[in-house]
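hey so u asked for the seq, here:
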Amino acid sequence: MDVRQLRYFCMAFEKQSISRAAEALFLAQPALSLQIQRLESELNVTLFIRHARGIRPTHEAILLYRHARAILRQIETTAAILGRKGDQPITGTVSIAMPSSTSQLIALPLMRQINEALPSVVLEIVIRPSDDLTRQVISGRVDFSLTPDQQPVYGVVTEPLWIEEILLLAPTSFQFSGSTVAVQDLTNIPLILPSMPNKLRSRIEHLFLEARQSYQLFAESSTTALLVPATVEGLAATLLPYSAAAHEIENQLIQALPFTQPFKREISLVYTDSLALTPAAKGVLSLLIKLINTFINTGKWRQCQWIGTRSYDSL
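ran it, structure tokens below
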């Protein structure tokens, strides 16, 4: 087993297709297939089940992917740390995992800032359901994540950054008696909610259970990119933070009502404790923290409170 084989395997795993992986690696398909077969032979396992539409990873492949990603990231990080001289520009690729709701507000501004301040750094933003964000860190898929309501996990560092309110986002045609809502006010309106498994959805379920109330489920979606447009179209209401629909709220395309008893979630920075952040990742993280603080302090990010206890300026 060598580094090249691990890179080939990871690409095949992510593309779920030998042909698409070979194209991405600029390899001939038979050459990639041969490398995968050699890896399977060396490990004495079957890594992929071939079918008409591509390949399906086996249980052994899933385990190997987690370790292979961590190994490759360690190699890349070590090379970046040892290879950079003090006067050289920061270079490299930085991957961040975050919820769809958070990305709606900060992804594009962060890209612009990195392009200006760190032009030699390539930023990758990985959008995943909240239950999968920390796994992206553990597997080595990303440098760090912004994860809601993170519980302690062996092998990762968790640093709370901010608390944000969860709001009722409703079509402008929906009528409410006041400027806030209670759970009881939602029992007779259709709701479109995040699909399970999802930490916010779990908290919503608990919210209704604790109030001994039921709700009308109109539809589900794993991405904010569908939840918010459905609300704008007047199909249903949803429960999301301000960041998920800042543009729509500010332009009065939907209405946003806080709960009478504030309904909140905590967002934390999550990264592995076994691998130092590269200079590029540190630079991106510093810019990200400054951007979020600016948004909160200027009121661009409403119903949000910074709770971070350390400075990231000198990373």
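The CA atoms of residues 206 and 212 lie 10 Å apart. The mean pLDDT is 90.
lmk if thats what u needed
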